[in-house]
Structures are given as C-alpha cells and as structure tokens.
Design a protein that fits this description.
Elements lengths: L3 E5 L2 E7 L5 H8 L2 E10 L6 E8 L12 E2 L4 E5 L2 E5 L1 H7 L1 E2 L6 E5 L5 E5 L5
Antiparallel strand pairs: 1-2, 1-8, 2-6, 3-4, 4-5, 6-7, 9-10
C-alpha cells in the first residue's frame, strides 16, 4: 500500500486509492470493514453473479450511506479530524500531491566549490 500526502489549500491529508488488490490493507489502515456485495450484472465470461468488495468505515459528517462506503477507485482521506471518502474525479480535481524531498542536497562553499550529497529522506 502506498499512502502519500496530498493538499487542498489549506487542508493537508494522507490519502490512498482503494483497489481490488489493497482493499484489506486499506480497511486495516482506516479501521474499516470489508464487505462484499453481489452485483446485478453477471460476469461477462462466466455468466455468474460477481461480487464487489467495499470498505465500510466511520467517516466525518456523512450525509449519505455512500459517504461511509469506499469502492475500488475511491480515495480514503485521513485528516486531523477523521476519515472521508472521495470519488476519483472529485479527489483529482480538488487535491494536489505533495512531492517529498528528492534526496539530493547541494552544499555551496565560500571558495565556489559545490558538494552534491545524496541521502535517504526520513519516512
């Protein structure tokens, strides 16, 4: 799971996009539960009903049931106030990724020399 920092002025949050592959790991991170729902549309290959996993969690001021359930493609955000769920379109329009330091430092000396140093930024 790759949790990264994103910003929407003046709000900075941690966020992760839910996928079929990370649904259990994300649920553990946000304190949610994974539930499966049978889909009305059968699988195109097998013809059998399919299931979609979703994460049900406590969120900050939910107005609708959808505000407490994240499906693959949705983003779960963690701020100082709690968790929220955003659809991909709303998240990508409203938030900008905060880039972490590159791990390269340039030190300039009075004599005009420059020393380039690589380091591992703290996680």
């Amino acid at each position: 799971m790759d949790v990264q920092k994103y910003a929407r002025n003046p709000l900075t949050v941690e966020a992760v996009q839910v996928t079929e592959e990370n649904v259990y790991e994300v649920a553990k991170w946000c304190g949610g539960d994974v539930v499966s729902h049978k889909m009305l549309i059968p699988d195109a290959v097998t013809g059998r009903p399919t299931e979609q996993k979703r994460i049900v969690l406590d969120t900050l001021r939910p107005l609708y049931k959808k505000h407490t359930e994240a499906i693959p493609g949705d983003w779960i955000l963690k701020s100082d106030h709690g968790f929220k769920i955003y659809a991909d379109v709303a998240f990508t329009k409203g938030f900008t990724k905060i880039e972490e330091p590159t791990g390269i430092v340039a030190t300039f000396f009075d004599q005009g020399d420059v020393k380039i140093t690589e380091f591992t930024p703290p996680q």
